Amino acid sequence: MRRVYFDNNATTPVAPEVFEAMRPYFVEQYGNASSIHWFGQQARAAVETAREQVACLVNARTNEIAFTSGGTESDNAAIFGVVEAARSETKHVVATAIEHHAVLHTCQALEKRGVRVTYVRVGSSGVVDPADIERAIRPETALITVMHANNEIGTLQPLEEIGRIARDHDVAFHSDAVQSVGKIPVDVEKFGLDLLSLSAHKLNGPKGAGALYIRKGTILKPLMYGGHHERDRRPGTENVAGIVGLGKAAELARAHRADDAGRVAALRDRLEAGMLEGVPLSSVAGDRARRLPTTTNISFDYIEGEGFVIAMDLRGIACSTGAACSSGSVEPSHVLTAVGRTPAQARSSIRFSLGRFSTQEEVDYALAIIPAVAEQLRSVSPHYKRREVGVRS
Q1: pTM of the entire structure?
Q2: Torsion angle of alpha carbons 105, 107, 113, 117, nearest 10°?
């Protein structure tokens, strides 16, 4: 069976160049990067090269990059770290209602510790109004955390404007940029960020490697304690192979990002237009202009999303109902309900996320299958049958 992968927001395939860069650090260059002998110094040099590659991708200084196990750890380290280090007894955080669960659940954990959190709502566009962020700030606000690109609908947030607001109010500013880094330009200086989270496996690197940008002078209380690794910001022996892979993926993204973005956006638009034309009663969630080039999220009315994903998988095509970390949840997506989708629409929504290795042939193959799958699923839907009867009468 032919296999087509349209779930790149969940994870991306490792680029061949990344795999080849990592290979020696599994077998030949196996030293501990903290050891002072030759083996250790070879590993240390590789880690520092990767640090420079990641820093260049987001316009940071090399000593502002700390390596982690991925985006979730980076989000936790940033949010807990800033809030726990804040001096005021009463603490407050500003977030948006459509953050990834790595941020939302961290904020909820802080609430159990007595920290107050304001979740700023977004409109149907899926884009937050910076003025609403500013109105949410209090004298005790320790942190603003706003994701750059939404993982479910792809919408982009106005980080530059929010960054100016954060500076004006002297509040630390963090962004979960896991979905945007490597796909579109990300500049920590332009955005006025104090902290930024990224993950290797979202930009054709390996799973289990990520980074946290920490602006010089930003005070964080560490999540863990142990050795003095990563300038006392993240203890534990470095995952050298994973870090090397992240560095190489960052280098490739920087070199090919512009060309990839234009090509992938054209494929996404072709897929999206074909689905809207081929499947009646379908619609796109969120702003269709201000979003990632990789992502479309479409509601097919009267179709259960889980059934659609399974039916597509049986035909060799991978897509999703939303965030991979929320698979199995019986609740409708918090992102889709936040942008005005009804629970029924949210449950009928499918995310297609393309990537560097997606092709026009794959898009056309999917478009030849999707209308028939939708028609088949609607034919067994009692709600759709009742609608048809109502239309005919």
Answers
A1: 0.95
A2: -140
